[in-house]
Amino acid sequence: MFFFESIPWYNVVMWFVVLGLLIGLNEFVRSGKRASQLMFMALPIALTPVWLFVVDSEITSWFHWVKVYSALAGALIYMVIRFTNYHKKHPWYLVLVPAILAINILEAVIREFQVGFMGFNGVVDGMNYISGGWNYVNAFAGILNILTICGWFGIFATSGKRVDMIWPDQTKLWIIAYGIWNISYVYSCAPGNAFYSGFALNIAATIPALLWAKGTWMQNRAQTLSIWMMWVMTFPYFFAVGSTFNVSVSYNPAANWTLALISLALNVALAVMQVSRIMKRRLNPLKDELWTDTEEYKQVGALRETESPNPKTA
């Protein structure tokens, strides 16, 4: 196969199990404050000693440690918006949302440059790598993805049975550009479980945001990534090389180039569209929402009418 080696039926089943569990657990934490506190406060506190003193893993690098806590930081920051009025009294707090997103992307960009610059070829941190020009191409796409984050002062929280953080100016195009960039990153820099953490993890955050929970992609991404990273830190070998459920990438440079070039093309197109819109409408990308006149924005922005001055506390 082009992107992966053979994919047995039981690995296909496991892929859907992973996808279903991530979506299901994301819906669980969307259900309320207590569920979110259990998943993103109590559970990581309980697991941190396990990661430090019990799990002995050769494949847990610095990146895994940074990623799990930065993802959890995002989930906690978004919980404040979902369940309190703090962001209304202190609008600066909303800047933390794009900040944690940008930091997460930047972490991956740095890792991408590291893999390319150090010429990872062979087994490094327990994973087999090949490196090449695609690392630099995708790193540049990641930088563009950071620069095209926009409209964070329009973020708000809904009320009702499920309290969500909504980001109306985070368009489908940005989400898709991010998704392909992240898949390309994982494929090149975390190839040991790219079948799951590249494709299933990205799709798990996107499906609800496109279908029944529009505008929630950022929230979904932080929550599903936190859940995935806690699993990886606790059971690092479950999908690793040698596991029944491991699916090896093809290690075909053409596959790496394909993903990186698609990632770059999408992010360049997004950047061109945003710059054009900013110039034509004389918008300030640091303060203004860029897509308010689009049907997509209006549909998601209409949820603002359900915003409550007193979000649920339980």
Brief overview:
The protein has 314 residues and is mostly helical. The protein has helices at residues 9-30, 33-54, 62-83, 86-89, 96-117, 133-147, 172-189, 194-210, 217-234, 253-281, 295-301; strands spanning 122-124, 127-129, 156-157, 165-166.
For the largest beta-sheet, the strand count, sense and barrel status come to: 2 strands, antiparallel
Report mean pLDDT, rounded to a whole number.
Answer: 91
Using DSSP, what is the number of strands?
4
Low-confidence stretches: 310-314
> Approximately how much beta-strand content do the residues carry?
under 5%
Report on the architecture of this protein:
A two-stranded antiparallel ribbon has the order 1-2. Strands 3-4 form a two-stranded antiparallel sheet. The model is unreliable at about 310-314 (pLDDT under 50). It has helices at about 10-30, 35-55, 60-85, 85-90, 95-115, 135-145, 170-190, 195-210, 215-235, 255-280, 295-300, and strands at about 120-125, 125-130, 155, 165. Helix 1 packs across helix 9. A hairpin with a 7-residue loop joins strand 3 and strand 4 (about 165). Helix content is about 60%, strand content about 5%. The longest helix has 29 residues, at about 255-280. It is mainly alpha-helical and about 325 residues long.
